[in-house]
Amino acid sequence: MTTPLTLESIRKAPKALLHDHLDGGLRPGTVLDLAAETGYDELPATDVEALATWFKTQAHSGSLVRYLEPFAHTVAVMQTPEALHRVARECAEDLAADSVVYAEVRFAPELHIDGGLSLDAVVDAVLAGFADGEASAAADGRPIVVRCLVTAMRHAARSREIAELAVRFRDRGVVGFDIAGAEAGYPPTRHLDAFEYMRGNNARFTIHAGEAFGLPSIHEAIAFCGADRLGHGVRIVDDVHRAPDGSVELGRLASLLRDKRIPLEMCPSSNVQTGAAPSIEGHPFDLLARLRFRVTVNTDNRLMSDTTMSHEMLHLVNAFGYGWSDLQRFTINAMKSAFIPFDQRLSIIDDVIKPRYAVLVG
């Protein structure tokens, strides 16, 4: 018998996560603890529930720029090796508790050096935290593989340096590179030297594009920068057109994305909060899924959006009537698109994802 689709049953389903920001997923209690330990006294609330509510309320702004403002508080308390290690360990544990079996978690090392740490020391602390979180989750019977993407801020000028950091650590847990931050006025082509460095070293990268800005940012990310994946990519729907007879026609850019199987790292709740989509029901996820784009489900920022992978999947189930086969397809889409080697991806798909979904389907 097929297991009914509920939040609790979805929590048991194996998940693959490609787009999750470390500094956007702290536990509210951890933010308070770290603020007390480091002497940071600018938090907007002093108890767990009020702080959690503040983050969610502030993030639901309708603007990517305003959505990013609360990160000043989480980044401020992540300036020591101990803080970075704790946040990374808890991240792995929290994802594993939600039955995430593979995750790529990203963060911007350049934001965590205000306390005097070097970029390498920042990455070392985070990778150690992920490793300890993996071990803790495995001991609890919830094995998870966590890998890291290092991000450069698109308004800054350190992207080549961060790309070099990604390559330097690629055999120690860093599997790729990314640029993030406000899109308007900061096109991906400002960072061509970083992307050329990654390609020259046979390394993988994703680019935030098509979230707050439209088709030009997606075009640049693919045509000029050579992105392997797109962070969000929501605005590709602007190149999907309905003909007078009701049929759907793809523009050249949308066709290229679909033909090349460029993965879209979509984050439904976050996309609504930033105004990239009007609502979950109005999100282009379903249209793109039906047109067989390689869509994936992601959390983006679990603290800011007060979400988990299970909640994101449930939102889509409620909005579009998806069943277990759909959730399995989205999960396999993500796993196929991961930046780890092919044999490791295949092993997780064949040995973990498919067998556990078979139990749920009955």
TrEMBL record:
GO molecular function: 2'-deoxyadenosine deaminase activity; adenosine deaminase activity; zinc ion binding
Domain Adenosine deaminase intervals: 14-354
Gene it is expressed from: add
Record's GO cellular component terms: cytosol
Catalytic activity: adenosine + H2O + H(+) = inosine + NH4(+); 2'-deoxyadenosine + H2O + H(+) = 2'-deoxyinosine + NH4(+)
Full protein name: Adenosine deaminase
Keywords associated with the record: Hydrolase, Metal-binding, Nucleotide metabolism, Zinc
Gene Ontology biological-process annotations: adenosine catabolic process; hypoxanthine salvage; inosine biosynthetic process; nucleotide metabolic process; purine ribonucleoside monophosphate biosynthetic process
InterPro entries listed in its UniProt record: A_deaminase (IPR028893), A_deaminase_dom (IPR001365), Ado/ade_deaminase (IPR006330), Metal_Hydrolase (IPR032466)
Cofactor binding: number and manner: Binds 1 zinc ion per subunit.
Cofactor(s), names only, from the UniProt record: Zn(2+)
Important for catalytic activity (site feature) positions: 232
Residues that hold substrate according to the record: 21, 23, 181
Domain of life, per lineage: Bacteria
Function: Catalyzes the hydrolytic deamination of adenosine and 2-deoxyadenosine.
Family, similarity comment: Belongs to the metallo-dependent hydrolases superfamily. Adenosine and AMP deaminases family. Adenosine deaminase subfamily.
Record EC number: 3.5.4.4
Source organism: Mycolicibacterium grossiae
Residues at which Zn(2+) binds: 19, 21, 208, 300
SUPFAM superfamilies: Metallo-dependent hydrolases (SSF51556)
Residues annotated as catalytic: 211
